[in-house]
Amino acid sequence: MRVVYRGLAAIGVAAAVAVALVVVVFPAGPDEVAAGPVTAPPAAPSSSGPAPSTAAPPSASASASAPPTLAAEAMPSPSPGSSLAPGYTAMEALYADPRVPKLTGRIKRLRLASPTRKVVKDRRTGLIVPNLSKPWKSYGAAPFTTKQVLPKARTGVRGMFVTCPLPTMRQKSPRDTALLAARWTLNHHPKGSRITWLASQPVKNGWMLVYRVKYGKHQSRAAVVVMDGGMSKPGLAFVTVPDSQRKQWRDIGRVVAGVRVLG
Description:
Blueprint: H1 2-25, H2 30-35, H3 60-64, H4 70-73, H5 90-95, E1 119-122, E2 127-130, E3 137-138, E4 146-149, E5 160-165, H6 174-184, E6 194-203, E7 206-215, E8 218-227, E9 235-242, H7 250-258, E10 260-261
Antiparallel strand pairs: 1-2, 2-10, 3-4, 4-5, 5-9, 6-7, 7-8, 8-9
């Protein structure tokens, strides 16, 4: 019987040790696991090995040495004719537009004629512009502030001379402001239009550009004058005449010579 009691006592001790081991090996409760860092689970330990230790977080030096992601390096190019692309300035978007070539110093200056006596006063832009003679006539201005047009042509494109507050971003340089305005005028030319510069020069309180707009087998002559008329925005005078009405191309010179500040 003494041997039996000793055996039962040994079994009891072994059972107590087993319970203690179970308590040590079992992981913490579910609340503690949820509060820990979200990492990949460690490899399952063998039944005879020690309990797995908590993995240390990656060091700051390792994070700093990681290569940058492509998302931080790849910046999309602005598409032609689109509004300002994210991350680009107005001038960067202009230079990326294949429809608008770079304006170099080799572009000639235009000899300006004497301004006409008949004028139109645009008080919203603070500008005075020529009132062109027939076949030009005044027309409903909206969405501009003044508008003169030529008769409708067979091609569906006709001459137009308008003024309005500057519809684009004003730049530090009057020349850059005029470049952005010229790019904007492509919205009022047929699809696929491209610019070729013909003349560029400063005018009083602003800048003037004359250019050719090519679309398919046809073209227009156009010009913009951006001038500070003392309003919250500079004023824009824009004229375009298609090749089907080329007799009025001479009026473009009258327009750029006749724009001046009101008052």
